[in-house]
Amino acid sequence: MTIVETQHFSLDQAHLKSGEKLGPLSVAYETYGQLNAARSNAILVFHAFTGDAHAAGYHQGDAKPGWWDAMIGPGKAFDTDKYFIICSNVLGSCKGTTGPDSIDPRTNKPFGLTFPVITIEDMVDVQKALVDHLGITKLLSCAGGSMGGMQAVTWAVKYPQYIHSAIVIAACHRHTAQQIAFHEVGRQAVMSDVAWNNGDYYGKALPARGLAVARMIGHITYMSWVSMEQKFGRKLLDKQKLGYDFSKDFEVQSYLEYRGQSFVERFDANSYLYLTKAMDYFNLAEGRKVSEIFKGVTSDFLVISFTSDWLYPSSQSQEMVRALQAEDADVSYVEIESDYGHDAFLVEFDDQTRAISHYIAKVGRERAGLA
Amino acid sequence: MTIVETQHFSLDQAHLKSGEKLGPLSVAYETYGQLNAARSNAILVFHAFTGDAHAAGYHQGDAKPGWWDAMIGPGKAFDTDKYFIICSNVLGSCKGTTGPDSIDPRTNKPFGLTFPVITIEDMVDVQKALVDHLGITKLLSCAGGSMGGMQAVTWAVKYPQYIHSAIVIAACHRHTAQQIAFHEVGRQAVMSDVAWNNGDYYGKALPARGLAVARMIGHITYMSWVSMEQKFGRKLLDKQKLGYDFSKDFEVQSYLEYRGQSFVERFDANSYLYLTKAMDYFNLAEGRKVSEIFKGVTSDFLVISFTSDWLYPSSQSQEMVRALQAEDADVSYVEIESDYGHDAFLVEFDDQTRAISHYIAKVGRERAGLA
Hints:
Radius of gyration of chain A: 21 Å
Helix content of chain A: 25-40%
Oligomer: homodimer
């Protein structure tokens, strides 16, 4: 059992896409494995929406490992015997990196809604500063699923000379109307909770019910029709029959309630607003054609999608692959058969490991001079 | 322009599936066309979740006709030159038929949550009493989309000897985990609004924000990925660029807000709870195999689904068709190509008209002795 600790990196100022400046910032990050002497074996891993820097290993005393521990470790997809893995909490989150729940040094109070609206590009810029700080001039790879995949593809477009490869899983190059719509409803649920109080609820009652509703919507979109049928179907709770009242009858109701409640305990409602907004703003094709997104990329790409993911469907990954091919980028694409919907990137470890471990080894050999 | 009026039918008592009794009841209904002397040309049409008895024609002074006017009228799919069409508001709704917003004669106050939980079968029983009252012993057909389709198939199973045919559109024989889940989140949004006040809000502030959020979720599920992309994509509101704040940037956000707000003005929050619950309870396979649902049916069936409907997908209609075929029922199935998602049954009039008009004519000739 590998014990890991979260570390912190300080950044004086970030210049945001909105034109605003934000700083000083603190960035929570973890590393796994050893950086080699040539500093050529570093891989940056990105977490998804509600994740954190604790991607692998155990914190002292914890019973559960990091969120992608099945993928990061000795002999695993991201093999810590060979590679140096970095994962940082994104800007705007509430897991150690500066976000709306952080203290604004100007007021000595939490930012709340005075925190500036941030973008996926801003998250990537902060990560770039961290990578610079670690003395790494070129990453062997950068990899993530969902919002993590958006960061990976943004690295490839914004910092092409700093990466050898990008692994983009269950993601997209821009948010579509349906993706924006689901986020908008979640935000409205949060902002409709009177306890939200225009974002000023720290130290008071939390907008727990609104945030729970928002999370319930999310969970439906993370699963698939089939995985919901297999896990719940019409299974009743401990009742023998329907209750004919408004208490819960079905297991799926209880599951959603549990997911909503546990989310409230671990996530900040304002971070929910800021991070969903960042994803909704995400559009690498802003001001240009999709076919022009990848002009100037120099890295290799591995794109992975899952057959039953209807939130970030394979068609979006395939659109990216076509745009990359149009630029003669070296792109591999794997569609993994899975019933787990969007959650598959957190579940389907074997298929992802097969695709990723070989891919990283190949990039290491061909582009980074690794054995 | 045909002017129509809503009529009312009184029923002393309904015996509900839950075991409770409810009454006296008032049922709002409308009719279009003329009942023939043999009383053999009557078709019962069912509205969907938030619909009403006003399916066609114009109410005096109204600028807009009923919700399925494109399908009901002279020469239309449900041809009022030939057939007598009946549409009633369902039990538990708030559009003229007794529901949670009606006055409970025992207390002289609105029922609110003291209204009993009702089922699709209970709605159908009340319609059966209306049909009896109109002196019709056998319906030429019964037809509806979505929750209306659930009523149609329930008629076929519960009152086989009283119908010649059932037209089941964009529906299912039971609610699945994902369908229950979307409704559960909507109910939680309503019940999380402090104004909901355990259902006791009549004459006070309405749970407007919660109900609006619930409706927004619904609207996403009624559209399709493609129809949302075509209608909205990433189109901005009157802004020239992203706002970098929490005001609305995208047209799709504004559309959802509009849909949520207008719903609050026309629909009762408690009816939202009761009708979604009725759908979630809907399961013709309760206590038996799917293959046994249609044992004993005697009517013909026309089943229609739409390619982009992901809320009630074609696969559910096809499951019904297979179960009907297993009972040697005379079943026609049409899958209509459409990008409109579940909304298609309220949009794709030409294809539905082609399928339905010929089908009804055939049933009339072969089973009801109509010319």
